[in-house]
Specification:
The structure is a single chain. Helix 1 crosses helix 3 and helix 2 (22-29) packs across helix 3 (33-45). This protein has helices spanning 5-17, 22-29, 33-45, 65-75, 79-92. With 95 residues, it is mainly alpha-helical.
Amino acid sequence: MNYNESQQKEIAQYAIEHDNNYKATGEKYEISYQQVAAWVRKYKKGSTMTKKSKTEKPQESKPTTTETSTLDVLSRKDPVLEAQLIEVKKRLGLI
């Protein structure tokens, strides 16, 4: 059976009000434990709880300032390591 958005929300609210008892909620509404849990997660997340179109692409998240600065730090060359690398290459006769 297909459930519309308001029915999904009602079932999720019922489960939350009953201490997240997904099993009992599933038995009451004759649906699976996993489906109840999924709807509760969506409800708690604040999702619209509607099925997305198969053609709809998920939005990519933009990197935050922290992620950007971490990438900048990781992409920098370490002068000490660069000097050590040159020294090793000289010892091996590669330079």
